[in-house]
Amino acid sequence: MAGSFFQSVYEAVARIPYGKVLSYGDIARCIGYPNRARFVGFAMRACPDHLPWHRVVMADGSIAGGGFAPVRRMLLERENVPFLPDGRVDLRACRAPLAEIRAKCVAET
User: Fold this and answer.
1) DSSP 3-state of 20
2) Treating both helix axes as pointing N-terminal to C-terminal, what angle do 2-14 and 98-107 enclose, rounded to 10 degrees?
3) CA 1 distance to own-chain centroid
4) Which of 105, 108, 98, 109 is nearest to 12 (CA)?
5) What is the DSSP string of 50-109?
6) Mean pLDDT for the stretch of residues 35-46
7) Measured distance CA(68)–CA(91) in Å, rounded
8) Which CATH number is 2-104's, of 1.10.10.10, 2.60.120.260, 2.40.128.110, 2.70.70.10?
9) Cβ contacts of residue 7 below 8 Å, gap of 6+?
């Protein structure tokens, strides 16, 4: 199960458009596991480097990633992702269209 779950996470991450973000919970809902945001986080720890891993944020827009948080913020800033005054991503302004990503994920399964 872990392999197919992780692969589903990576397929969803690959579809996050430039300048947009999704939360871990958004991805979990997209792939049909609405209560598995934490497992999406586990998958993201092993995310292949060629995927836009920096476009996945916490549900409140906070940037996760421990030591990689500054790198993630820099990459998001390069994509003109807007931030709130407190440093969180402005999810209202840049959340990727979940329905489109979900449709693409479902269409390929």
Assistant:
1) coil
2) 130
3) 20
4) 105
5) TS-GGGEE-TTS----GGGHHHHHHHHHHTT--B-TTS-B-HHHHB--HHHHHHHHHHT-
6) 95
7) 20
8) 1.10.10.10
9) none
Contacts of 23 (CB under 8 A, 6+ apart): 37, 56, 57, 58, 59, 61, 91, 95
Give the predicted TM-score (pTM) of the model.
0.89
pLDDT of residue 107: 55
For residue 47, give the 3-state DSSP assignment: coil
- Please write the tens of the pLDDT for every residue from 61-95: 999 877 788 999 999 999 999 999 999 999 999 99
Instruction: Answer whether residue 1 shows pLDDT above 60.
Output: no
State the Cα–Cα distance between residues 41 and 43, nearest whole angstrom.
5
